[in-house]
Write a structure and sequence with these properties.
The complex is a heterodimer of chains A (about 550) and B (about 280).
Chain A: E1 3-13, E2 21-29, E3 33-37, H1 44-50, E4 60-67, E5 70-71, H2 77-87, E6 88-91, H3 105-116, H4 121-134, H5 140-143, H6 153-165, E7 171-175, H7 183-200, E8 203-208, H8 211-217, E9 220-225, E10 228-234, H9 235-240, H10 245-253, E11 279-289, E12 295-306, E13 311-315, H11 322-329, E14 337-342, E15 345-346, H12 354-361, E16 364-367, H13 381-392, H14 397-410, H15 427-439, E17 445-449, H16 457-474, E18 477-482, H17 485-491, E19 494-499, E20 502-508, H18 509-514, H19 519-526
Helix pairs in contact in A: 3-4, 4-6, 6-7, 10-16, 13-14, 13-15, 14-15, 15-16
Chain B: H1 2-15, H2 21-38, H3 40-43, H4 75-110, H5 114-128, H6 131-142, H7 147-173, H8 176-183, H9 188-224, H10 236-242, H11 244-248, H12 253-284
Classes of the chains: A alpha/beta (about 550), B mainly alpha (about 280).
Chain lengths: ~550, ~280
């Protein structure tokens, strides 16, 4: 077996700064699928791009990066173009960013065939259509005349895969190609990639932060941390018996569906208990009217209740209405019909006035998904939290600052960071500050809207742990909105599955994960990536 | 994800770095012109209005560094004193239009209902009227001088600021941090004036800097067609107008100097404005 991609002692960095990649060595053989896993900033993308001769401007590199014997560090521009055109293809995370929005799918696919391979228009079209069918797209002929905005993210990623396969590459580089997609869509894409890779005997280097995904697709794996390969070997060996501490941490932090293990809060009363629920929702709907008169139903007659001290997970894919539900609960949206009662107070079906909002703030708070947008960029984190204490606990400037310091300390932000601006903090730290800000209002119900989805797995694990701890200490009621079943299984005793605006199933988390009653839920659970060595679902 | 996070940080690092050589040059030009104008009463070699009919249309050098005009007045002194009126106008217009534009833009951007729509249409309507036309209308109402054009220009430049502020507010309003303020129960005026407004200032400031150059040129044009500052007050636009006769007689310099200064200042201000907006654009991208 010859080495298709060979990287030896590859070091890359900017002059005068510590290297971004430090003596990275890896190889991919013909017909082999290899995973490169690591957290953000570990250098996964840099390594992969180097294989195509793409280096960040102004960087310096040394070592060897060769594809089929061509050294991309020293190769001429022409040889690199030849390499990218004939021998290696790349698939990126965001398919929409890689396609010209004003040209049709057909234009996009046939362009290189027409320009470089000397095919006639009809030949090129025929090849493109065939390729689209091969990646599992139906009505490929009609698709050729459509524009990118008419396609869903999953379909578009299939188009990108088709484009990458058109030149029958020997090496396929995939940079987190399914990260922006829903789980069920991801499952389809992963199948296609696996099938094509095996059928064509291509070499594949698959970058991901998701260990489960790596295990479901690749025989060998390299674990990258801060620009260094810390461990490599057969996927099964590395993940089941990791030798390095870092790999072990990663494996442990990767959420798996834990049945029964859900750390239900102590003495959480069941839904049938006589205690009046903290949050009660019945027949709650939200529709939007588009300018053309079309009506979109974002949330369709939702019914559920959440007892004081309970923890409810709301699971669904994009467009399922789960975020709409979260926004209705915190009154960022107004319901079209139905009732929402929080602490026996019925929610008026109109935007709240200032004093109603202030009262509501003491009952419910929210933490959003994106840690980079959810804090005011100009306000030091200590002041941001102190402002809330001044508003709600009627504290003076100094007292509020002290309270903020205490609370931030409690969520793991040390006093030395109290005057830091959000941009000086990492994603995990920002999410901790957002949590502190929400808790400063001393709410009873905390809504977490994908609050850990944008974080690296190890950071996610820490933040989840913090949420659990705070929940138990403060007796918080939790409404956790997420796409990730595993996270729910860890944090929530009850779960509610949503699909296309409707609640398809609800009940105790353990029961739903073990014995889903609805087809969609079954599909959702089955779509989770499964290791190659394990035909059984990860639930166990 | 990685890239999306790293880009703004790279932009921020650039934000604190030194200005480009081009911007330094522009800043130096602007500073020299402003200082010379500000201290004209002390620095100017002659009384700008002193008429010396024995020494008309003198060339540069000798007693008069830049020469004299058709009435024998010292051109350098008139330029320096003229700067006081020529720069004062745009300064007032820019401050006025920025303050008004920010307020209207905030209101328009924040109100989701009819008010935002009505204000937006009003801005569009104002855009349709050229600033110069508005100024002439105001002059017809209030008479010639500095007051009418400044009032008209202020109104004419409000939509440039307001439209920008409105679109920024609309973008900020949907950001999670602003929504978090709402959920936390902070009152709208506190959020808008105390938290959102300061985040708009850098971008709006860059736009207003650019506006300064345009207003300067517009006001000079008004003076040139005789509707702005009236003689004998010195003003760059008025100086060009007064030199028309000399220009036809083959004497270029009396018109050339004020024209050069107007061009220099407008270009300098534009370079600074572009640099500011580039930097802010880089920061926000």
């Amino acid at each position: 077996m010859s080495q298709l991609l060979q990287i030896e002692n590859f070091t890359l960095g900017f002059p005068g700064r510590p290297p971004l990649l430090d003596s990275v060595s890896l190889h991919v053989n013909d017909g082999e699928a290899v995973a490169l896993v690591g957290e953000s900033g570990s250098g996964k993308s840099l390594t992969t791009r180097a294989a195509l001769g793409l280096f960040p401007g102004g960087s310096e590199s040394s070592g060897l990066v060769s594809v089929q014997g061509l050294d991309t560090l020293t190769a001429s521009k022409q040889r690199l173009m030849e390499l990218r055109r004939r021998h290696a293809s790349m698939i990126f995370q965001d398919p929409r960013a890689g396609i010209n929005p004003v040209r049709t799918v057909g234009d996009f696919l046939t362009e290189t065939l027409l320009r470089f391979d000397g095919l006639s228009r009809s030949e090129a079209t025929e090849r493109a259509v065939k390729q689209l069918e091969q990646v599992g797209l139906r009505r490929a002929k009609e698709l050729m005349d459509q524009h990118p905005h008419q396609l869903s993210g999953g379909m578009l990623q299939r188009v990108m895969i088709a484009a990458a396969l058109l030149n029958s590459p020997d090496l396929l580089l995939c940079d987190e190609p399914t990260t922006a997609l829903d789980v069920t869509t991801q499952a389809g894409i992963v199948n296609i990639l696996r099938e094509e890779q095996q059928a064509r005997g291509m070499g594949m280097l698959f970058i991901t932060h998701d260990l489960n995904l790596a295990a479901s697709l690749c025989e060998r794996v390299y674990v990258l941390r801060r620009g260094e390969v810390v461990e490599h070997g057969p996927t099964r060996t590395v993940f089941l018996t990791p030798e390095q501490d870092y790999t072990r941490q990663l494996v442990e932090a990767t959420p798996v569906i834990e049945s029964g293990a859900a750390s239900a809060s102590p003495a959480a009363p069941g839904p049938d208990s006589a205690v009046a629920p903290l949050l009660k929702v019945s027949g709650l709907s939200k529709t939007y009217q588009l300018p053309r008169g079309e009506i979109i139903t974002a949330l369709d007659a939702a019914d559920f209740s959440l007892p004081e001290g309970g923890s409810l997970g709301i699971v669904g894919e994009s467009g399922s209405g789960k975020s709409t539900l979260a926004r209705l609960v915190v009154a960022l949206e107004t319901a079209t019909s139905g009732e929402l009662t929080l602490r026996d107070v019925p929610r008026p079906r109109r935007p709240l006035n200032a004093s109603e909002r202030k009262t509501l703030a003491k009952d419910v708070q929210i933490v959003f998904q994106d840690p980079y947008l959810s804090l005011d960029p100009r306000i030091p984190v200590g002041n941001a939290v102190a402002d809330v204490f001044r508003l709600h606990q009627k504290q003076g400037r100094k007292e509020a600052k002290d309270s903020a310091r205490n609370l931030l300390g409690r969520v793991g932000i040390g006093a030395e960071r109290i005057d830091a601006l959000p941009r000086a903090l990492s994603g995990g730290q920002r999410q901790r500050v957002a949590l502190a800000k929400a808790l400063a209002a001393r709410p009873r119900l905390l809504v977490l809207d994908e609050a850990t989805s944008a974080l690296d797995v190890s950071v996610q694990a820490q933040v989840l742990e913090l949420v659990e701890e705070l929940r138990d200490q403060l007796g918080l009621t939790i409404l956790f909105v997420t796409h990730d079943l595993a996270v729910v299984s860890r944090l929530c005793s009850e779960v509610l599955v949503m699909h296309q605006g409707r609640i398809v199933e609800q009940g105790p988390t353990a029961r739903i994960l073990e014995d889903p009653g609805d087809d969609y839920t079954r599909n959702l659970i089955a779509s989770r990536p499964r290791p190659l060595w394990d035909a059984e679902p990860v639930t166990a | 994800m990685t890239l999306a996070i790293q880009l703004p940080q790279a932009g921020l690092r650039r934000y604190g770095s030194l200005l480009s050589p081009m911007a330094w040059g522009a800043l130096a030009v602007a500073a020299v012109v402003v200082l010379l104008s500000l201290f004209a009463p002390v620095l100017a070699p002659y009384d700008p209005d002193y008429v010396d009919l024995n020494n008309v249309l003198a060339g540069p050098g000798g007693q008069h560094l830049l020469g004299t005009d058709a009435l024998g007045r010292d051109l350098l002194s008139r330029l320096m004193h003229g700067g006081r009126t020529s720069l004062l106008g745009p300064t007032i217009v820019v401050i006025g239009s920025t303050v008004l534009g920010l307020l209207l833009g905030l209101v328009a951007g924040w109100s989701e209902g009819w008010l935002g729509k009505v204000l937006g249409r009003l801005f569009d309507l104002l855009f349709a009227f050229p600033a110069l036309l508005m100024a002439m209308l105001a002059i017809a109402l209030f008479g010639k001088g500095l007051f009418a054009p400044i009032l008209a220009m202020t109104i004419a430049y409000v939509p440039y600021v307001a439209r920008l502020a409105q679109s920024l507010v609309v973008a900020e309003r949907s950001r999670p941090y602003v929504q978090a303020y709402r959920v936390l129960g902070f009152r709208t005026p506190w959020v808008v004036l105390g938290r959102v407004l300061p985040n708009l200032i850098p971008t709006v400031g860059a736009q207003s800097t650019l506006n300064f150059g345009y207003v300067l040129a517009d006001l000079a044009a008004l003076s040139f067609i005789g509707l702005g500052v009236q003689p004998p007050t010195s003003d760059w636009g008025a100086m060009i107008e007064e030199s028309r006769g000399a220009l036809l007689g083959g004497y270029i310099l009396p018109a050339f100097w004020p024209a050069l200064v107007v061009v220099l200042v407008v270009v300098a201000v534009n370079v600074i404005g572009e640099e500011l907006s580039d930097r802010i654009g880089g920061k926000l991208s």
